[in-house]
Amino acid sequence: MFHGSIPTDLRAIIHEHAGTWPGQATDVYVGCSGNFTIERVLAHSGLTLHSCDVQLYSSAIGWYLAGGTLPISLRDESAEELAWLEPYMDGRAGTLAVIMLGSRWLQWVGREQHPYYGRMLRAYRDQFERLHAQTVAKIETLPLRLGSYQAMDVNEWLATQVPEDAPVITFPPFFAGDYEQQFAALDQHFAWPEPTYPTLDDTAKATLIDRVTSRRHFILGLHFDVEELTPYLRGQVQTANRGVPINVYSSVPRSRIVRPAQRLEPVTSPRLAPGRRLGERLRIAPLTMGQFATVRSQYMSHRIRPGTPTMALAVLVDDALVGAFAFSSPKYDPHSVYLLSDFPVAPTSYPRLAKLVLYAALSTEAQFLAQRTMNGRLTHMTTTAFTERPVSMKYRGLLSLRSRKDSTDPAYRYQLDYGSELGRWSLADGFAEWRRRHGQTERLDGPEEDPAQ
Q: Among candidates 71, 1, 69, 73, which has minimal Cα distance to 35?
């Protein structure tokens, strides 16, 4: 019932290593608790667990699991609009349930003028009594309990609250600001004794690494290599194809490497090859998830972390595969589908083949298949590009730039959000327009560069 999780294989590493610590190590300290997955892994180990974190969501859970009261109240500026929540806030499970449920919908408060957000807010308020009672019942049956919880910076906690001979486990946030962004709406509407803490930047992480690895027993999870810790590297877990690998450093001499097992299925259509001219008929065809994984692994940039689509479609001209795209179901706006992936095959003699894939994705035929698959009326499409450039050359001219901001992924400089109407043309008309605007730049003397990169 908590946000997020640690993969099964990573759970196994934690359980195996903690199980080898000497019997006298009965108290274990878990820093940067987040969603308390590490604590849940060790809930039945007989260990007394002590935790810390700096976010409201985590602190509400931690205080409850440690048997304390939750010193949380509505902020003065939110008291009138959200006064209906106060009867549910009892300082224990009731308050925790409000925080957990609020993490799902509070980001829409103040945006009621948008039809979707307004409907969702009304629905949550109408059903809140039932949802709150169900959540409280689940909370009260949680088997996990903590020996203590501190809302404070992990480095300060290690230096002042954790005995020097105590085992420590921590998987710090991969990127600065992860939890701040995820639970910003909670801080906007609730007052609580917020701890002061520095950003967990490279300097703070170096301090954290030193304070953890100086102990006799430790488990440390990081998304980057630390050369001086190579003798302690006991495992590496990569939970998704081309996902961020997690290095597990531990004082226990037991190793494990876990890589994702991706199901692949053959795609029998011939690929458009260099020197081959395009045919006359643009069409799209459904792909299984295994087939989509096959072509995605071959042609999508390896710097892009793949997600799981709701539907995937091949783009063909006559019988030749020229690319693929995938949609995810609407998340916030029920009429707006998300373009999760789009890419051309390569190499070919057409430098702007990526735009032909977009023409196919914006077609009435793609709109019809998406609506049939997702059982709803879909009128718009959104997508996100991570890039070093302030605009995406692939999307420019076809999609509208909705926002530009600094990337949360350190591999890129910008995060660009794009959108467009769906069903703007038929496949035949879109192909004709692409030929007129982009097809004449074809060259038949060698391979192309990928314009999507």
A: 1
Assign 441 a pLDDT band (cuts: 50, 70, 90).
low
DSSP readout, 288-327?
Answer: -HHHHHHHHHHHS-TTSPP---SEEEEEEETTEEEEEEEE
Q: Tell me, yes or no, whether 277 lies in a domain.
A: no
Taking the whole predicted model, whether its pTM rises above 0.85 is answered as no
Contacts of 12 (CB under 8 A, 6+ apart): 256
Q: Tell me whether residue 346 is in a domain.
A: yes
Residue 360 to residues 54, 425, 434, Cα–Cα distance (Å):
46, 9, 10
List the CATH number of the domain containing 359. Answer: 3.40.630.30
Cα 335 to chain centroid distance, Å, stands at 22
Peptide bond before residue 330 is cis, with ω within 30 degrees of 0: no
Phi, psi of 51 (to 5 degrees): -130, 165
C-alpha dihedral over 290, 317, 323, 331, to 10 degrees?
-80
Are residues 295 and 243 both part of a single domain? no
Of 38, 25, 7, whose CA–CA distance to 219 is shortest?
Answer: 38
Domain presence at residue 205: yes
Examine the domain organization and report whether 370 and 250 are in the same domain: no
Alpha carbon 114 to its chain's center? 25
b or e along 150-177 (b: 16 or more beta carbons within 10 Å of the residue's beta carbon)? bbbbbbbbbeeebeeebbbbbbbbeebe
Tell me: the pLDDT tens digits for 329-371?
Answer: 987 788 899 999 999 999 999 999 999 999 999 999 999 999 9
Q: Is residue 88 part of a domain?
A: yes
* CB proximity list for 97: less than 8 A, separation 6 or greater: 88, 132, 135, 136, 139
Q: Contact, 200 vs 208, CB < 8 A?
A: yes
- In a shared domain, residues 313 and 217: no
Q: For residues 185 and 310, state if they share a domain.
A: no
Q: Are 173 and 244 in contact (CB under 8 A)?
A: no
User: Which tokens belong to 170?
Assistant: 């921590």
| Tally of CB atoms within 10 A around 410 | 11
